[in-house]
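job 3f2a | input accepted
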Amino acid sequence: MKPQVPDHCKKCGGECLKNVEFLIGLPPEKVATLLQRAQRLHLRKGEYLFREGDPCNAIYIIHRGRVKLSAYDQDGLERIAGIFVEHDTMWEGVLVPNSQYSASAIAMTEVDCCRLARRDFEEAIHEPEVALRIIGMLSKKLHDANRRNLLKSIADPKERVAGLLLYRYRRQTGDVVTLRLEEMAGLIALRPETISRKLKELEREGYVKKTGQSSIQILDPDGLMEMVNY
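job 3f2a | predicted structure (230 res):
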């Protein structure tokens, strides 16, 4: 199913774009142009923002909800490249000419987001301040990707689970990480049953506490850091 397109962003007075990092400082006339062109999208759980193989022709700014970027390997197992939440920007491959998405973006919950066409995005980054901000954000993104890949190299399953929880904890403001076992499995290449056992061990040892079916409260982030040296 394709996402619904309720309206253009200009209808909300620009509130949905005012906190987008790379747009801060853009001349008012440029912001007004982007608001005229950007689309506000609403997705129901399970709907696709884009599919693997689609052309990379836009960036997406998440305002509410969670989106996973995933693909399936040759054995049919899902591999999750990332999970995007409020204020995250998805621009996988958009700066690479003639590129296609290497994974699909799927709504994990109801999602509100904005779509900004590639041509409009490229026009915006002609502003020197915006271009520098983009370079900084891409550097952070590369650093973040390296951290995710490092998780998969941890041999001990419990340490790998602890590293994932710590990674998610550091990327949010609260102390409750929300991830289903299947999502964790896709992120760190472990079986859901293995992750379940290791979560129980971490809970018995006082590092975390399960507060819901998919919610894990981080009780001792310093202890997790010491465990994985991450």
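job 3f2a | The first helix runs from residue 28 to 37.
job 3f2a | closed
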